[in-house]
Amino acid sequence: MTAKRSIRLRRRVLPFAAVAVAAITGLTGCVTLPSSSTPRVIDTFAPRESNEDVPTPVPNQEPDMLVRDFIKASALPDQRHAAARQFLTPEANEQWNDAESATVVLRANLSAAGRRTEDRASYTLRAQRVGVLEEGGVFTAGEGEVTAEIELVRVDNQWRIEGLPPGVIMERTEFYTNYSMHNLYFLDPDRDALVPDPRWLSASSREVAPSLLNMIAGDPRPSLTDSVTNRLGPSVSVRPSETGAEGEGTTVDFQGLPTMSSEEIQEFAAQVVWTLNDADIPGPYRLERDGAPIDERRAGGWRAEDVSDFDPDPDSPQLEYVLTSGDGLVRLTGQSAQRFGGEWSEIPDTRYARLSPNGEDLALVAGDGPNAEGAVLKVGPVDGEPADILRGPGITSPTWSNVDDSLWFLGAGGRISRLSNATDPSSAGEVGQDSLDDIDGNVTDMALDPTGVRLFFVADGQAYLSVISYRDRGTPELGPPLRIGQALENTVTSVGWLDRESVLVGRSAVEAPVARITVDGAMTESQSGRNISARIDAVAATGKSIYALDQRSLLQLDTQVEESERYWREVPGLSGIRAFPVVRG
């Protein structure tokens, strides 16, 4: 296993509600992998330890309090929600279909429905939907009001729930407490990078590895189906395996694996190794096909370093360049900032720039703002001369695709376009974006993720994610947009990527000017609010820092410092200067 991680923050399960929503609206050893007789996801949720706090009915409990404890117990999925079933009558227990759905809500509000009698009571549950937890641990962010009718009756002089709708309703705080997020990894269209697919498993599960492996042997979440490749197809399942001595790692024996080339074996191993490594499953990983190593050269086991080219969280360089209105491109060196020189520093009114994924080329927008008739997109090697590629109103937000090296940008009216060849104006054309027709307002900022599979954008102050389909490598098509960070309301002003599994937003709100959101929308988490002021006009992340451009200057937040000690500080050499951070992607 590798301990290296640069700026990833994902293991901290802290809901945004605990930090800022209130202000806005009112996270060693050996392993034996059991068998699975089918390639479907298996139910491996283990019962909780006996000393853990599991809600149970309290004698002589008032009916509304019993319902609240039932809702709390509903967040425990063990043994078909056995904890929650204690609150039901025998008949309701038989009839309740807990598997139909699992809805996560902000908080459940109860109100009496009808007249309470000595033996009967009924309540209406109302709550704001946060999302839905679907089969395979897929969380999908959602909106709207949830309403449910719950009826109670006295049984042996104790209140029990007699009538309730199918499915499970759990509050978000309980969801965070009782579930943990893990990533499945699939291959990008070029099969040289890993795309995360977050899944939520019971935090009390003692068998995370088999759950993840059976999930990855299935399908990616529906939105990713046309955008990723999976070397573990539906014919693959995990077979029983023997555990070695303490500290010898994990053995995984697969059944149904097709014959693979050496390149395909490497891709297969990358998916499995990084999925297990990021879930803290101990390595090395002995990957077998029907009891024999899939690669004799790795008979002793695979390690993360054996598939380091696929590292889903590779090291990134420290911030090297910024844009300023007076000096154009500026290079950061240690504790100073120096005018870059050459034509890149002679361009007036620079507004937005991005480095290509390899850091060799630069795309820059200059002009009098996003509505300027004279906005111009310039592209060229960093150590060379820029060329004027396109000119017109509304050009902004250039961002590079790691799939085909194309350059995406926003044009007039917030339309999303791309240059299939970044230096050839004739290669410009719009991407398929019919799926965005129902979104209110124009797209005002966007950024492609490091794999080129997801597009993060803001429209009408709201944050959205779309998965990109590259079918037959024709015109890329944007999938249905998923609104994330609903708690932020219409305050999003700028967007960027923290890593492959989470995004950054800058906001116009005083409370929590910068926030992080996971790509499934399950978690929204504020960053430090110390020494930073809204509005935030740019956010970015590289190296070990997060950068934000507020109304005074460019600020940086060191993610390696303890959270209680994190302050936004001015970038050395740029005190009092409003500079746009220039990062890769």
TrEMBL record:
Domain GerMN, residue spans: 208-298
SUPFAM superfamilies recorded: YVTN repeat-like/Quinoprotein amine dehydrogenase
Membrane topology note: Lipid-anchor
Keyword check for Lipoprotein: yes
Superkingdom of source: Bacteria
Annotated keywords: Cell membrane, Lipoprotein, Membrane, Palmitate, Signal
Classification via InterPro entries: GerMN, LpqB, LpqB_C, LpqB_N, Quino_amine_DH_bsu
Localisation per UniProt entry: Cell membrane
Predominant place of localization: membrane
Similarity remark: Belongs to the LpqB lipoprotein family.
Alphabetized HAMAP family for the sequence: LpqB_lipoprot
Name of the protein in its database record: Lipoprotein LpqB
Organism the protein comes from: Dietzia timorensis
